[in-house]
């Protein structure tokens, strides 16, 4: 019998702890598929961040360094300078990358550090219990914006992809979503391109993935998927804003 | 590699030179006075040995780049001064939890706040009591001459690898800026063992490893803490460094570390000439602190004077270490005011005379 | 034998250079030496000073509280350091810029020299006044020999100035000659 679907080699068989409908599982898989595609699992180092994504080391079947909150890009920059022929990636949420670690990711991008950053943006703090994120939409309620995010007090949802695309350093800057099968296919391609950039030594690659948090959004998984399309994509438009030339391997 | 017999060099450069000669080929840092000669030396000389210098965007980034590189097992170093070291405290705690070796240099300056760039010893507590969160220690080395800056930098890499602990070299502006002749040397071992079972090098042909300080399972965190504690106890047993000068017949013993200990040495030479029996205990490791040495000398000498360039930090550890019947006086000069040998001559002889009249 | 000296003047008068040169000369003589410069913001104000301690034994304090010698190149430096001097100490004073009357101590050995004129006479320009002062100091103190200072020039000077070594040697010797009794 022909096998048509299997767990990527770059993933362990440990069951996810993620909540039903959470997109982390999909994004983990897409990263693992990309590493399988290039057959680099044994020469890859993942850098885990703080938040729901911290358990990367349980699911990724390669080596993982846990970074202090927000510092994953700096840790990866240090690792990559020693292990130049290895693949080094970070996997960070919106609190980690777009609040406490903003400086670290901007400077890693600006230096063109040859690493890949996967940025999972679900507009809320998941692990700490639904507090406001820098990417929480205007008017959105969270446990620390109980009356809705107010631009006068809290500022605006931060657009990391657009910010980083303005820099000279990065080789790829893109925003994708995984709320529909079509979007998953596009995301798979972009994440693969991001790792290809690194493997070809083209420098910093960055993929923002719009993601759900049904638990803290207070929604069913289906409603959360719909919200991505109806509320998040209009504010955080999908697409590749910056890309250096590579030969398309797909 | 051929190296010159004797070089006339600044303390900061002696540290950088020693680091490279000890096989440290990666440096991450952010400029701050009075330690800038360290990153400048590394930036100039690391490319020639195939190493890499990177000026980070902040000390927060520096310490985390250090963490990412240290996880691969190479020798790495960063350096800074008080305000920058404060920013690194978070990283120090992660180094402790993750059990990673690396060397950090603090050529300290006045504080609190922006302070000033003159020599003080106000960072003693921050160094030995743990400035970051959690129940942890650093290994803290306190050199007092240019040669010792060189020697202890090499020692720092070795001891840091032995215990998988961050090792801090605590200096100040006098030590960093002073120029004196030093004799460079190259240690036998210029890298850690490549077979260490925790190195992150890609999981080729073996089970993947993880570097983490997160322990959520029942009892795991306590177990990890006891494991760290065991290392700290081993350090206190096996790796204390301390210098004793003329303590055998001393009726008064001065305790001082770092640059001020050197000034104390001059003052003691003068009071000895004047017939006063004064000795010196100079802790070289601030952690592990030479408690046993103090307990021993406190058995025969009952009068102690602690001299520091702060308002009284190490004196607490001296008091905790000595037998209860010892008297401990303190002389401190905070805020960048450096005592001269003459100042200390006066203080020491007054303290000595007060004792003799008892 | 123990010797210490504080050298002070305006930035640009070559204070750090002669401090370094003295230290290199001490190293040639296999003596222990420390050179402690003023640095950082302290230098931004336009004044520079350094302390050099030379000893046959291990150098204790590199900090000089009560100097036994001074090389003073400008007036603010005399005002700052003279009061701290040990009685009987030697001051090499740059008379070109500071009148000897500014000195308030009568228990020290004040050697006032017209350094610019001596430099001009020895080397054809006034830029080596610092070397003249150093020559006078080593002759007077015996901290190192004048010959050692001359030999140490190649260590202390940037190689691109090595063609200037003969002129520097003349200035050092002129300083030494000026204080020979």
Folded structure, characterized:
The complex is a heterotrimer of chains A (250), B (358) and C (181). In chain A, the strands form two sheets. A seven-stranded mixed beta sheet of chain A has the order 2-1-3-4-8-7-9, with helices on both faces. The model of chain A has no long low-confidence stretch (mean pLDDT 96). Chain A is an alpha/beta fold and 250 residues long. Chain A has one domain: Rossmann fold, CATH 3.40.50. Chain A is globular. Chain A contains ten helices and nine strands. Chain B has two domains: 7-202 and 227-236, Rossmann fold (3-Layer(aba) Sandwich), CATH 3.40.50.970; 243-356, 3-Layer(aba) Sandwich (Rossmann fold). Chain B is 41% helix and 19% strand. Chain B contains twelve helices and 15 strands. A seven-stranded mixed beta sheet of chain B has the order 3-2-4-5-7-6-13, with helices on both faces. A five-stranded mixed beta sheet of chain B has the order 10-12-11-14-15, sandwiched between helices. In chain B, α2 (37-45) links the parallel β2 and β3 (52-55). The N and C termini of chain B lie far apart (60 Å). The model of chain C has no long low-confidence stretch (mean pLDDT 94). Chain C has helices spanning 15-28, 41-44, 75-81, 115-123, 129-141, 146-156, 165-179, and strands spanning 3-10, 32-37, 47-55, 69-72, 90-94, 109-113. Chain C has a six-stranded mixed beta sheet, sandwiched between helices. The two termini of chain C are 22 Å apart. With 181 residues, chain C is α/β, with parallel strands linked by helices. Helix content of chain C is 40%, strand content 20%. Chains in contact: A-B, B-C. Chains B and C meet through α7, β8, α9 and α12 of B and α1 and β2 of C.
